[in-house]
Each structure stands twice: as structure tokens, then as C-alpha cells.
Amino acid sequence: MYGEGIYFRTNSQSFRNNQDFTINIPPNKVRIICSGDSFTMGWGVSNDRTWCQLLTSINQRLQTINMGQGGYGVDQAYLWYKRDGTKFEHNIQIFAFITDDFFRMQRAKFLGYGKPLLSLENWELVNHSFPVSRGSFLLPKITEGSKYIQELRFVGFWQTLFPRKLETDNQYVAKTPAIAMKIFEDLAEINREKNSKLVVVYLPIRSDYYGNESDFWRQYLQVELEKRNIIYIDLITEFRKRMPNEKVETVFLGGDGHYSVFGNEFIANILYEKLLSLPEVGGILEQ
Questions:
Q1: Nearest Cα to 65, choosing from 76, 75, 55?
Q2: Span 48-64, mean pLDDT?
Q3: What global pTM score does this model have?
């Protein structure tokens, strides 16, 4: 699937790593868990070329656990970490996402597969799709796909509507910002209890270089995460600032897909630089 000379390997713990991990952090190591979707998992590149793994090349004291998973939204990345990631001690959790990961939270299916569907009841997260449907793999019907696309287009204009309430019959669309913020609050609390730091990271895709589809989410997260003292790194800003226009396509496979080897290297380098500049994180990395 990935091509000649490119490999995909998971360990016995289902993480995209070449080795298994002990529960405790090894001596003289700083452990980071990377949570996210296929841009974190590293679709299309080998294990050792993902940005998560490349962090260990920048600082050899780092040990990174890659909990990226293709097709996951913010909701599933959160739930997987709670189920399988929290058993491991760690110093930092990087929770990374792209804009589409918020839209994935709004449906009980992804490409025909059943998935969790989180909602808020009395400011508590509740799963409205449990147990997950075991239906066979089927592409969504044309009508369903059309409705989904129209909804995404609608949500794409959130920045022009904010802060007015969204007018849509899908309660999960309207509640997505609040649900996402509750997820980040819970992750921050879990990390505090584990003496770890949560770092929320907005990853860029190609369209972020030119368009404003991500503006609502970037602005919303900037304001709301700052209120909660949750560390937030917006790499879209750095992507636009540092990447020359003529090199944008080299960051992505096929010019407009997942990160290329060069793209993963770019993300790893600027992310580590930003982490190092944060007093509450830089001290951990250099301890």
C-alpha cells in the first residue's frame, strides 16, 4: 500500500512503533505520547519518518509513542488514549489534529464503519453510539454523502457566524465546539494527575496555506484554551510563515495529500522548536 521500500509496522500494543513499551518511563528518558489521526500516524511514510518518531532524532532522550490512527476524529483519538494510553506513564501528551477531525465528530459512521458519537449532557461527555455498529464496510450512499458534504460546507462558514448560535438540525454540529472543549479539559485533567503536560497542536494541510476554512477553529481554540491554561500550538501560522510558496507542494504526498518525508521533517522541527520555547515544556525536554 505504501510502496516499495516504505513500511508500516505496529507493535503488540497496537501503536505505530517498532518496539513495545513498558508502563514506566525508562531511566533518563522523556516520554511523549502523540495522539491524532493519519497525519500523526504518518500515512505513506515509514515508521521512522513520521513526525512523532522524528522528534527522537532531534532529541535522543525522547521516547515517543505513536497513537495516531487513520480516519480518527478528535473524539476517537481521545477515547483511544483514555482506553489504552493512560496506562502508560508519560511526561508530555501531544494531541494533534487537522480541521476535518472536528467534522468527523459529528457522525456515528465514517466511510461506512460505525464509530462513537459523543455529546454533552449536564456538561458530561456521553457516547450516543455505543456499542458501535458492527455493520459491514459499505461506502455511504450518494444521498448521504451529498448531505454530509453540504453540512461540511455549511460548517466551513462558522467563522462568519461566530459567535452566533449555529442553525442546523444536527445537534452534534451545533455542539461540536463545546464537546471538543470538554475533551481538552478532560485530557488536561488526566495529564495533571499523571504529572504530565498536555500540548494541543493544530496541524496544517495544504489548503491551510491559502484558504481560511480553519479560521473559526483556530480562533476558537486560541481563546478557549488560553482561558483554561491549556498549551496550544498553531502550526498553520508557522507553515504560512516559514514555507515558501514554491515549496508548499513538496510538504505533501502527491502535492496535496498526507505529509511527505520532507513534510514530516518540517513538522517535527518546528514543533520541537515551539515546544522548547515554552517554559513549562522546555524544562521537561532539557531536564
A1: 55
A2: 99
A3: 0.86
